[in-house]
Amino acid sequence: MLAPRRAALVAALSAALALGVPGSSTAAGADSADAHSADVYVSPMGDDHAQGNARHPVKTLQRARDLARARSSHADGDLTVHLASGTYRTEKPLVLDARDSGRDGHRIIWQGTGSTVISGGRKIEGWRPVRGRPGLYSAPAPHGLADTRQLYVDGVRAQRARGEVPVGLTVTPTGYTTTADTLAHWRHPSDAEFVYSSGEELWNVERNGLGQWTEPRCRIAEAEGTTLTMVQPCWDNSNKRVEFPDIPGRSVSMVGPGHLTNDGKASYIENAYELLDQPGEWYLDRSARTVYYLPRKGEDLHRADVEAASAEKLVDGRGTAEAPVHDVAFRGLQFSYATWLTPSRPEGFSEIQAGYTITGPTGWATQGLCGFVEGGTCPFASWTKMPGNVSFTYGKRIEFSDSIFTHLGAAGLELGTGTADSRVSGSIFTDISGNGLEIGGVDGQTPASGVEVTNNHLYGLPREYHGSVGILNGHPAQHHRAQPARPSRLQRDIHGLGRLARQDRLARDAQPQP
Rounded to an integer, what distance in angstroms lies between the CA atom of residue 261 and that of residue 171? Predict the structure, then answer.
């Protein structure tokens, strides 16, 4: 138990140093400054009934936002929300609107220390060996965790239980018939998800799915005997796309074929208790509210920090065309442990490319198809974009700098529809399920303009939705400025730690498993 106590002591010391120890010159100076400052102070050990000054910080981001909103009209310069070191766990996003903007040419700055983590995770504790399954452990799902797609053990992403489909498949209009009733006898076959990887013919890798740009995912709705029914509308949206009459096999979307290739074969299947057979794999039994994990060699679940991504948004900037969010900066922050649950629902993940999907019960038959089919809708490319775990719409002069986006389950940062004159600099994007950074929206929405992306480091992504990209430039009004990265000191330090962690993980994985 020494490690958790030491970690708590370090966190407390860091917070004390950031806030000022009572009786010290820093704290004394803060007292005199408080009378003249509108700044807000926050600490994981704070109290939301406190004044929010350096000696009496508040605890939550939401309370800090409300104080900053109230004080900004009295600030005679930039107003800074000082976030002490530590982890700020949040079940709901920090929602910002026009009221949370800087005023009179000044900014509201959310300032971290470099060790400030905004987390949507739920810590999982109480691990016990599973009787009859050597090496497998289980723990109760924490309160409020209804579902997740990501689990992390000491900051390393675990793999949802996966394997080959254990039966032969023959496509039907609603799913498949199988060569045996194996799946019907699984605990919860409707949890299981088929994944269709495109592969690459040039290298003789098996090619399934909807072409090289996509990797659709659809869940099983029901397994009865040898009949598999797939969830709707994911199945139709992935398997019924409209094709050019004179180009058989080529969809009007101009991305991939009109139906699943290779006779509808799934590349693999994920998310079933019966697939737990490799170290590092996990499964959440939602009905039993139990998490299962097969540890990697050297992992001790009684000491490990196991985090389930729970919140789907960490920061949500909700500007409008009439009332944008503006003049807001985020500096020295880490955004982690958020998920995205739409692919687990009947909508599934019917990908076009780069995380854009076809959605709705008739999406395959109508979206972007005006001029091609009766009832087709426009504009073209009005598909649904993968959301960002941190996102802004109609944001002006929004800044993210010296920050880290990691352990995320959707896109990392989304500067979406209507974003203008904003910048992202000196930041790190890694271990993200989908796109790293998204700029702009889709056709038919107000485009982004004047977004500057400079000196960032994007690596180790995408981790789950492999059709995604590092930077997605959606539907811009003009070219945005992007420059290659020149690592800052923060980036060098973090990248070095990440490299050591990866080397350690690879070394562990290379050792013989029990």
Answer: 11
